[in-house]
Structures are given as structure tokens and as C-alpha cells.
Amino acid sequence: MTVLNILVLVCLLYVVLLFGVAFGADRAARQGRVRWLRSPVVYTLSLSIYCTAWTFYGAVGFAARSGLEFVTIYLGPTLVMIGWWWTVRRLVRVGRSQRITSIADLISSRYGKSNLLAVLVTVLAVVGTTPYIALQLQSVTLSFAAFAAFAEPGVPTAPLSDMQSTALWVAAGLAVFTILFGTRNLDANERHHGVVMAIAMEAVVKLCALLAVGVFVVWGLAGGVGATLDRIETSEIARFDVSAGRWVGLTMLSAMAFLCLPRMFQVMVVENEDEDHLRTAAWAFPGYLMLMSLFVLPIAAVGLDVMPAGTNPDLFVLTLPLMDGRDGLAILSFLGGFSSATSMVIVAAIALSTMVSNHVVMPIWLHYSGGAAMVSGDVRNVALTARRISIVGVLFLGYVYFRISGGGTALAAMGLIAFVGVAQFLPALMGGLFWRGATRTGALAGLCTGAAVWLYCLFLPSFGPAVFMSETLHEAGPWGIGWLRPYALFGAEGMDPVLHALMWSLLLNVGSFLLGSLLSFPQPLERLQGAQFVNVFDHSDTPGGWSGGMAQSEDLLIMAQRIMGAREAQALFSAAAGRQGVAGYLPEPSPDFLQELERALAGSVGAATAHAMIAQIVGGAAVSVRDLMAVADETAQIMEYSSQLEAKSQELARTARQLRQANEKLTQISVQKDGFLSQISHELRTPMTSIRAFSEILRDTDDLSAEDKHKYAAIIHDETVRLTRLLDDLLDLSVLENGQVDLNVQSGTLEALIDRAVRAAGGETEHFIIHRDREAERVDLSTDLDRLAQVFINLVSNARKYCDADPAVLSIRTAVAEDQLVVDFVDNGGGIPTEMQAMIFEKFSRIGETKAGGAGLGLAICREIMARLGGYVSYLPGQTGPAFRVSLPLSGRMAAQ
Amino acid sequence: MSPERVSVFLARRSYRRRRLADAARLLPLAGGVLFCVPLLWQGAGGGARTVAAMIYVFVLWAVLVVVSGLVSRHLRGGEDEAGGADGGGAKGDGGGME
């Protein structure tokens, strides 16, 4: 059994192990055991697909040719990951909040979900990645051939057809693996656990392999660290003569490519499970890269020293152990290279197939099937099939490229050329993430210009003269214009071709991007997306763009079922319906729901396609002015709204207070009216009863004595008088209260007026003594004397009636102060309780039982009269007995009538 | 977006955090500059030796890994607000915070 056979066996076993790991991880994920599958360590290891076979084998070759310069390829990604707080964090957050499926999806989503941009990015990515896949196939076949050459020294190099068949087998095997584990589910956001786990394992294998070879070379071949350093010192790469331009330029280029390579984007953003994993990857991934490159220079130096001249330095990693007869180590090394190649190809195929199926196949299919696609046909199957065919297509393209190029040295240079190609995404990507002013036009202009310059200056010439470009074009430029020579654009002669192309393509790319953005005006959807991307940390979830209403929920459900699968779609719809408070599976097509649905669909078919699909059903209207307003001045609107609310609530409180007051007033008035009516009826009823009774006696009794007749008639008469008086009073009060009274102004003295009042009230008797100050009473008055007399009569007769002292003494004191006449009526009676003092001027208020049959209207009338005359009457507390004060302006000012 | 969100004074803890975020931002710049230092050695006479440059680069690399590990360890998630508000500078017309 030869070494070669063992190698084939080990290789097959390794592939079986790979399938087993992927299968086991997928199964564990399905059973919900995802925690250990998704640790930060696995995330960091999955990032290691940056180290492809090109870096596994090629780094040593690179170092053998140009010394330490190889390290720039690792320094760029190191700086990017150490600076994760700047960019990677933002990328991952945007990718998660927008459910991004690929770098093409991200750029298209940022610039208004433009499919044209997505197609452009996809095409460029395919063009840049296909040679890279070819490079991996080449490295596997080359390493296999190297093994064969050592195993069977008789045959110096394996025949070309053998190499090609090896490449075909590898490509086919990778296609099967990728289809099996990469297209298991449609939703790119449902992570490919199996694939990620497998590439994490491959990352460990390739690191171990390289370290093992390094340890073997340093301690086994060279004989210790010091001896190794001496070997480097004496080798042809001992001098550090790196051009500053290449050192800085390649570092920047690898940093840019790290962010823009479709496969890196796939593992870094799309497959990212938890933003927090970045914190670990920030130091662990640079550490991984450092370990990967630690032994590169020693291996290169020892290889240059030990191996015969003319040996391919790219394969030192493999040939050094083989030459020393360490077959086991050589097989391990081979597996490391194999791992690097396969993991890169698998992820690149997944990333590219997602882009191709989402942005090229699906839109075309949707276009040709028209609106009917929503009601018939299975979108889900179409998308999955498109993805599988894309995987096969991408791998086949890689194989074809490998065959056409014939595995020549042109391929080895492909790594950096592809880097420059994908770096063209960077201006649109970073501009979209950090600058709200970036527009679709700018991104298109930048990408087209950059891609064109890259094709012209680097990609097409890399095939060598006379393949795509003629010799004369190289030498003299198109139409003899020397300024347009591919390797010396604008007269920049003598530059390194990669640096030359990098400089011009990026300069022109950024320039067109900025100019296009400044000169164009973004569409509403672009501005909305721009705000969401740039301010992703302020609001990861902002209101969306659909103005629903025309959409039919049922159509949407049918479409969603076809894409996401029936169970997932129904779960999504019923959850949304539940949130809206609707039973069943059909929620209202509110803008919020449409936004959510679009995001969910975007996870399966990409943002642009999801947007187009919903637009077909909803009917185009995408962004309303209101949505833009909401993003632009959300805060201002909320503040305005809340101040409006505040004003409204204050107004409401005021109105409520007024209403309450009015209601209280009405209730009081109603109570007063009720009280008044019952008082009136009571007052009228009492005399009426006696009048009726005595008149009936007079009518029905024949044998009444004259004396009785006279007595009864007198009672009836008295009661009628009382009634008349009551009615007069009521009428009087009503007239006074309504302000309809006519004042009859006369002139006279107060003395005469009081005389008249005392006389009218019954005069002085031995039981009723009045004290007066006639000197003070000589005051001239000019007012309605009759009305004023009425007040005085009332007060005097009240004292006469209600004073319980014997003899009752009434003092009438008069004073003039500040043009105001004040007359006090004070008697020596028992006084009025404090709580009654406020009531005595009200209608029908009487204190205690009536002795003299008053209706309780007297003081009410007094008050009204005095108000008409411009003065007032009030109870005067703190005197020897009940006291009333009448106050009147002397100048005869009357109250307004 | 809204100026009132940026408070002038911070508690000691969040102040430390923000400076830590600043450090995380500065680290790649510092690394980039330091990695270019071997280029300056070429001027000295016969030129620099690859071994010296190699030792310098790998030691610096290891230091960067350790420092990045320390910074990232303390830079816990969920402080986007702090990081966002601290940037202060408005980028673009809407004021991108970072």
C-alpha cells in the first residue's frame, strides 16, 4: 500500500468526518442544542476561512519570494478586527436588523432596495471569486501531484489530465457538500449550523497542520530557534527591503478585502448569531492569524536552503516533510491545505449562490411569471432550486477557469487581483453605513467606474498579452494614446501593477461615488433606508414603508407560504393577527405588518426581491410622506403632539370646572325654587283653610248668633287681609328682584321719615319704648322716601313684634360718615343665633314660631329695596340685642336700574 | 439627533466605558502606525534585517492581541447608546452617531 493510497484513504475518511460533523451539528441544532454550536470560539474559527489554500501554501511561497512582505495579507484583517468598534460592529448590527443575506443584498438594501445595484455587485463578486475558486482547486491538485511525485519518484510530474480529473472530483464533492448543508433551509438568517461547524473544525485542522510543520521545521530540520534565525539571516530573504508603497498598500488592500469578500461577509455578518461574539473575535482572530503566519518565514528560509533549486516554494509546507520521509506529517499538512481550500470554496459557493439566486434568478423568474407567481407555482422550491443550480454553476465556472488557465502561474497572482476587485464594494459599503448623503446614483457610478478600471488595468491584462488585450495595446495604449496604457494609466509608469490598479480604481471609484451622490437626489425609500443604516444604533427598528389597505391579506399569506413554507408563514401571520387583536390567520395589512413580512421574506429571497414581491400585491405605493416625516422629525412631531395634548387637556379641565360650577348653580336654583314653591303654597294654604272653614260655617249653619257671625266674618276678613298682604309682598319682591321698580325720588328729612315709620308701626307704648337722637336725624334726603320708609317700618315693627323684653326698648342711632348715612336699629331683645344671621334676609326665613303671622318676606324685601336705593341693610352683630344697620349714600346716587 | 440626549456630565462608570470605546477606536490606528515603523529602518546604511523586522512585527502583533483582548473584555455589549451619544459629531445630514 503506497503513501498515495493512504493519502486517498485519509482524504476520504476526512471527507466522511466533515460530512459527519456537519450532519451532527445540523441535528443538534434541530434538537435545540445550539448553545455550544454557537459559541464565540466557533464564530472566531469560522472567520478563519480568510486563510484559504492560497494563504496556507502561498504564504510560504510569497515569503520565499519577497520576505516579510507576506505578513501584510494578515495585518489588514488584524487591524480591522482590532478596530471592530468602528466598522464590523455596525455591519453586524445592520445585517441583523435588516436581515441581510449577502453583501449585494446589503448594498442594494441601503440604496433603496435597488436590484440593479445588487446585480452589479453580484456580477463583480462572481467575476472576482471564480478565479479564486479555481485557485483552490489548483492548490489541491498541485499538492496531490506533489505527493504523487514523491511517492513514485519514477514519474516526475503527474499528467495534466490526472490533475484535471482530481480537480473535477474535488469540485463535484464540494458541490454535493454545499448543496446538502448549505441549502437545507431557504432563510439565510436561519444559520447553516452544519457548514459553520465543519469550517470551524477545518480551521482547527489547518492551524494544527501549519503549526506542526513549523515546529518540525524549526526544531526538526533547522535545530532550534537560534539556528532558524541564523538560516533566515543567511538566506536570500535576509534583507528587509520592502517597498513602503507595497507594505502600506497591501495592508490596506487586505483590510478592505476582509470587509468586502462575499465569503467573509457571509461568515462575519450573515452567519453571526450574537453581536457579543465580536468581543471575542476582536482579539482571538488576530491571534489566530498571528499563529498562522508565525512559522511562515522559517519554513520559507529552511525550504530555500534545503530544497533543490527550482522547487516550487508554494509547496514547501508539503515537500519539506515529504523530503524528510515524514509521511504522517505530510498527510497532516495535506489535510491542512485541503481544509483551507474546501472551507473557502464551500462558503464562497453559498455566498455567491445566495446572491445569484436572490438578485439574478429570482427577479428574472418573477418578471417572466408576472403577478401570477403569487397565486400559482412554488416560489420556495424555485428559490432553493435556483440556489442549488447556482452552487453547481459557480463551482463549474471555477473548474472551467482552472482548465482554461491550465493551472499556470497566472492563477497564483489571482489572489491579490481578486482582492482589488472586491475592494470596489468598499466606497458604496462604507459610504452607505456612515453617510446619509450617499445615493444610488453615486453607488452605481462608483461601482461601475471602479469595476471598469479594475478590469482594464488588472484583471484582463493578468491573463497575459494576446489573450484579451493585444501586445500593442499593452505597449502603446488604445489608439496609440500612451496615457491609457493599462499598466501606466495617466502616465503613472513603473508602479507595481496591483498598487497601480488599486490606486486608480479606488480613487476613481470614490470620486464618482461622491460626485454622483452630491449631484443626484435620492428617492424616498433610499432616504428612509439611509437613515436606518446610518443611525442603526439609535433606532434599530423604525417605522416602515408600506402604506397598506390595498393589499389583500390572503394573497400575502399565499405568497408567504410559498416562500417561507406553510407552517412558518401561518405562525407569522397568526402572531401578527394576535398582536392586532384579530382572531384567525389574516391580520390587517397595516404598514407595520407589511414591514415585518418584508423583513421575514428578505431573509429568504433578499431585500430587493421581497420588496418587489410585496409591491406586486400591495400595489407599488412604498413610502408615504408621513413615513419620511416620521424619520426626519419624529422627535419634533412627538413634542408638538404632546404640547397639543397638554393644551387640550388643560382646556378640558377648564371646561369641566365651568360645567361643574354651572351644575352646582342650577342645582341650587332648583332647590331654591322648590323651597320657594313649597313655602308659597304653605303660606297661601293656611289662611285659605281658615277662610274656607269659616265661610262654610256661615253658609251652612242657620242658627248663628249675630255675635258669632260678626266674629267669623272678622276672622275671614283678617285672613283675607293677611293673604292680600302676602300677595302684595310677593308681588313687591318679584318686582324688586326683576329690577322693574320705578323709583319716585322725593326730598325730605330723615327725622320726618322716622316719625312716619314709627307711627305706621304702631307708635310708642308703655311696652315699646323708642330712643331717638333727633339732633342727628336732621339730615336732608333725596331718595325714594316711600320705599325707604317701608324699610324703616319693617325694622321698627320687627322690633316691636319679636322683642321678647318687657318693656322692649328700640334705639335708633343715626350717623353720617363719608357721605354715607348710617341708621342703626338696636333693641334689647334676645338676639339672633349666629348661624341664623346669614339666613334672615332670605325669603320665608323666620326665627322660631311666628307670633305675629309674618310670611318671612319683610327683610328680603328690605334688602332688595336698599339694593335699589344704592345702599344696603345688614345685621349688626355684637350689640346688646338684635341690631340692623341701614346704610345709604347721601348724594342720592341710585343703583343702576 | 436630539441635543438633549447628550448629557454633559457622566457617572464615573459610564465615563470609563466611553474612554474604553475611544481606546477601542484608537487601537487599530495605533497598530497601523506601529506596523509601519520597520519601513523607517531602511534608511540606515545597509538596510534592516528581516529577522529584526520579523521579531518586531510579531511582538507588536502579540501586544495588540493582548490589549485588544483587555479592551474588548471590558467593553460589554448594550452600550451603543453611550458610544453613540459620545461621538457627538454629526455625520451626514442626519447626524450619524458613532
Summarize the structure.
The complex is a heterodimer of chains A (897) and B (98). Helix content of chain A is 67%, strand content 5%.
Molecular structure report:
The complex is a heterodimer of chains A (897) and B (98). Chain A is mainly alpha-helical and 897 residues long. Chain A folds into 5 domains: 3-411, Sodium/glucose cotransporter, CATH 1.20.1730.10; 424-540, no CATH class; 543-632, no CATH class; 635-737, Orthogonal Bundle (Helix Hairpins), CATH 1.10.287.130; 746-889, 2-Layer Sandwich (Heat Shock Protein 90), CATH 3.30.565.10. The longest helix of chain A has 67 residues, at 634-700. The radius of gyration of chain A is 54 Å and the shape is rod-shaped. The model of chain A is unreliable at 540-551 and 893-897 (pLDDT under 50). With 98 residues, chain B is mostly helical. Chain B has one domain. Chain B is built from 4 helices and 1 strand. In chain B, helix 1 (12-35) packs antiparallel against helix 3. Chain B is elongated. Chain B starts with 11 loop residues before the first helix and ends in an 11-residue tail after the last helix. The relative contact order of chain B is 0.15. Residues 78-98 of chain B have low confidence and may be disordered.
Number of domains of chain B: 1
Determine the structural class of chain A based on helices, strands and strand pairing: mainly alpha
Question: So what's the oligomer here?
Answer: heterodimer
Look at the structure and give the mean pLDDT of chain A: 81
Anisotropy-based shape of chain A: rod-shaped
Going across the biggest sheet of chain A, name each strand in turn.
5-7-8-10-9
**What is the number of helical segments of chain B per DSSP (H or I, 4+ residues)?**
4
Instruction: Look at the helices and sheets of chain B and give the structural class.
Output: mainly alpha
| CATH architecture level-2 label of the largest domain in chain A | Up-down Bundle
Coarse shape of chain B:
elongated
Give me the count of strands of chain A.
Answer: 10
SS elements, strand count of chain B? 1
Number of structural domains of chain A: 5
Distance between the termini of chain A: 135 Å
Poorly predicted sequence stretches spanning 5 or more consecutive residues of chain A: 540-551, 893-897
Radius of gyration of chain A: 54 Å
Q: Give the CATH level 1 class of the largest domain in chain A.
A: Mainly Alpha
Largest sheet of chain B: none
Mean pLDDT of chain B: 70
Give the low-confidence spans of chain B.
78-98
